[in-house]
Structure formats: structure tokens, C-alpha cells
């Protein structure tokens, strides 16, 4: 956590159904048959097989394979097993893809969750703009506001990659042994394992979007 010793303000702290003008249609969830067919087509193309080659290897007609790939029929488990055998993938792979849940997160304007992080004691306000529970990576999007009482803090260190997009104000941002002058519209992308943070608060208050990405731990 940041030190709580007294310091001057400029002294760094130590360590729908609405009509639109487009022709876009609402997204429809695929049926099980369509999902199975799309997966088989994708796996066939990855294996660099023609429809005729896969049909022959699976012992079915090309016409049946075409209907399966287009989601027009409900193939028997025996047929799916034969197709999967020809593609050298387990039958469960086709169904797990259909059953997999896709997480999403919506945060309305001004409703980000205010949380405490290492810079909170230096007057930095963090609003978490969303999160997802699954997937191979973690993404933490924050709206960061540095108010008039905020102080510099350059000792942030954590795993992953961070992107900063300035929305308002001006700041000299330090990363490792280099400093960057940022103003509205500027973007800084960096390895967040190196020490980093606002070094000089040039024009307060200031806001910027911070997005941190790192691998999700499975343990």
C-alpha cells in the first residue's frame, strides 16, 4: 500500500426493436444442429479436407454431409461419431462448444464500482468498468480520476500489459526509466511489471481509461 506519511501535494508518494438506418438484423442464437454443422465445417477446413474426402472417410454421402454442415438435419449419434472419427476429434468436442457459456458485463454511465487499489491513498479514484468470470485471460478496465488533492505515485507494479487512454487533463507518466507527457487523446501501452505511475500532475483534475490484461490463474 502507498505510504501515509505527510507530503506536499506535488511531492511523489513513495513506494432492442428500434428502427435504424442500417440493414443489420438482430443476432439469433444458433440451434444445436447449426452449431454442430458449423463446428464440423470448421474442423474439416482446418484439416484441409474437401467435403467429398470427409464424407468418404466417414462413410456417408456428400449430400448428407452438406446438410449436416448447413444445420438442415439432426444427424444420429452414430453419424456424428463417424464424422468425428474421420476428423480425429472426440464427439464431446462438438457439444461442449455449443454448451459453453459466454460471459458479458454491462456498466452504465456513472455506475462503475469504486474500489480501493494501491493509489487510493494518493487520491486516485478507481471505477471498475466491468469483468468476466471465465476465459484464459483477465481484463480489468478502470476509469481513473485524479482530483485536485491527488498526488503523484510512480511505484505501481503488477503482472500483465496495461493500456492508458487519456480522456482529460495532462500528466507526465513514468514507466521504468522513461517519462511521457500525456494529454487528452494520447495512448500509452506498456509492460506493467516495471514500476510506473503518474509522475507529475500537470493539469488537474484528470481522467484516463486504464485496461490491464494478464493470464488467468487456474489454481
Account of the protein in words:
The protein has 219 residues and is of the alpha+beta class. Strands 1, 2, 3, 4, 5, 6 and 7 form a 7-stranded antiparallel β-sheet that branches. The protein folds into 2 domains: 32-99, 434 Repressor (Amino-terminal Domain), CATH 1.10.260.40; 113-215, Jelly Rolls. It contains 5 helices and 7 strands; from the N terminus they run αααααβββββββ. The model is unreliable at 1-27 (pLDDT under 50). The chain has helices at residues 32-46, 51-58, 62-69, 77-87, 91-99, and strands at 113-115, 124-128, 137-146, 161-175, 178-183, 187-191, 196-215.
Task: Name a few traits of the molecule.
single chain, 219 residues, alpha+beta, 434 Repressor (Amino-terminal Domain), Jelly Rolls, 2 domains, seven-stranded antiparallel beta sheet, 5 helices, 7 strands, 29% strand, disordered N terminus
In a few lines, what is going on in this structure?
The protein has 219 residues and is an alpha+beta fold. The protein has helices at 32-46, 51-58, 62-69, 77-87, 91-99; strands at 113-115, 124-128, 137-146, 161-175, 178-183, 187-191, 196-215. Residues 1-27 have low confidence and may be disordered.
Task: Give the SSE layout.
Blueprint: H1 32-46, H2 51-58, H3 62-69, H4 77-87, H5 91-99, E1 113-115, E2 124-128, E3 137-146, E4 161-175, E5 178-183, E6 187-191, E7 196-215
Antiparallel strand pairs: 1-2, 2-3, 3-7, 4-5, 4-6, 4-7
